[in-house]
Amino acid sequence: MNTTNSLRSLVFATALLLIWSGSRLDTIAAENTKVNSLTGETSAQRDARMKWWREARLGMFVHWGLYSAAAGSWDGTNYSFINGTTNIAEWIQNTAGVPADEYAARLCPLLKPKPGFAKAWARLAKDMGAKYVVFTSKHHEGFALWDSKVTDFDAMDVTGRDLFKEIVTALHEEGLRVGIYFSVLDWHSPDFPTDTKKSGYPHPLGKRMSEQELAALDAGRDLNRYVDFMHKQAREVVSNYGPIDVLWWDWSSKEIQGDSWRAAELMAMVRKYQPQIIMNNRLYYAPNVSGDNLDIFDVTKGDFTTPEQHLPATGLPGVDWESCMTLNDTWGFSSHDFNWKSTETLVHNTVDAASKGGNYLINAGPMADGTIPEAIQVRFRELGAWMKKYGESIYATTANPLTEVSWGKITAKPGKLYLHVFDWPIENRLVLPIKHAGEVKAWMLADEEHEPLAVQKTADGLTITLKPGFQNPYDSVVVLETDATSAKQ
Ligand code: JFZ
Question: Which residues pair with 135 in a beta bridge?
């Protein structure tokens, strides 16, 4: 090769190297960008910490406490669900306006967890295909499932058992990640405000006593002392029970959030004991909990946001989110709410969430002895049977890179699309509005032989002829190997 050519090659190679190193430096810079001004965490560190959670896609929620013994009734009245969040069973103390002492006296003797209840929960979560379990360590009633040193309103004093420890141990034994729901409300605390109208803090007595009586009661109460107590309780659960993977905070409102709970201090304390922990953003008000209008997602307020009882219509692009839902209408066990979602709905919701880049957290409300109602177990195990066969199309997938399709949903992995066919197409011919991809290969995920499906490129995009023998009653999944991830223009 003559000198000129050699020189040209050297210049070209140098140019390539400069372009590559420039883009590499950009990537490194991006990975090293500090995304959390409070913790100094970089984008790469955050991605590494969130990785298991983003890949998990499906979790089991458990609401279990003294309210489970009330089962949605008080003094012979069955409180049934009304739209929104009214009369949900775990709010029975508030709904029925029960003073803390009366509530504790009536329900503590009824909390009799059967031996092995926690192992049964963990087994069911495993059978359902959940990768993590979030359970209520303490709900608004203030009853602590762990052995708390700052109150005797806890499981150790009432049952002689550290129920929190039994649950965490059972989850770890099944290889499940451990999430704890922790309410910052506390209707048992003598320092928690009672005059809801005046303070904005929900409290059972707010319905039963006059403004004057409530004012007199609150005069002796000290909110700062309550927040100190609440921080001590949070410290107990994150420092005494080994690795905790998720902290699922609850409750804030527009008026009561953030500094009301000394949230930044609380989250910093938690991270000191559990550096890898993932926390939701419910110590701060997030409008998307009840609606879709997520304003600005701020990672300093939490790692993920929590749409409740709904799936965001178009997902929340670029935001980590988890949709939590009840299986019937209520989180805590109710003796008279049989409005169970179908297994098909559970499968479709799981797929829908994943197709929008989110997680799905579906709830079980065990009875006072820890038994999960049969209606829940059946549905969770049917969901698990589907997940066992098709989980590859959910776990570690990312959102649909194309437009929505009429016949189902789409999830993705590098070089692959998973076509979730809810409505089987006429004459088995599925149309995917995708630009004419290069080399494509398709097969039914349930077909262990991966026998190729006929794929035609037409003006409408790709037409794939499905095999009826691999149809699934809830969701038949087609794997499409393609590098084309842009929808047909
Ligand atoms: C909260 C709890 O009150 C409820 O009992 C259950 O534990 C649920 C998972 O979380 O419910 C909420 C909290 C906030 C809103 C709605 C329901 N919100 O901000 O609209």
Answer: 62, 180
**Cβ-defined contacts of 345-349 (< 8 Å, 24+):** 346/379, 346/380, 346/382, 346/383, 347/383, 347/386, 347/474, 347/475, 348/409, 348/422, 348/474, 348/475, 349/311, 349/323, 349/325
What percent helix, strand, coil does the chain show, rounded to 5? Answer: 40, 20, 45
Query: Can you tell me which atom of ligand 1 is nearest the CA of 61?
Result: 9
Q: Distance of alpha carbon 238 from its chain centroid, rounded? A: 19
| Residue 127 tokens, joined | 């059978």
Residues facing residue 363 across a β-bridge: 61
Q: Give the H or E element holding residue 104.
A: helix 100-107
> How many other CB atoms sit within 10 Å of the CB of residue 473?
10
Q: pTM of the prediction? A: 0.93
**Atom 20 (ligand 1): residue with closest C-alpha?**
290
- Residue 446: Cβ within 10 Å count: 15
Block residue for tokens 């199309």: 393
Residues 150, 156: Cα–Cα separation, whole Å: 12
* Displacement of CA 65 from its chain's centroid (Å): 20
279 contacts 302 by C-beta, under 8 angstroms:
yes
pLDDT higher than 90, residue 26: no
Q: Are 236 and 149 in contact (CB under 8 A)?
A: yes
Distance CA(63)–CA(411), nearest Å, equals 30
Mutate to test the pocket of ligand 1, among 180, 250, 260, 295 (most ligand atoms within 8 A of CB): 250
pLDDT digits (tens, 9 = 90+) for 183-209: 999 999 999 999 999 999 999 998 789
Separation of CA 4 and ligand 1 centre (Å): 73
Question: Could you tell me if the CB of 230 is within 6 A of ligand 1?
Answer: no
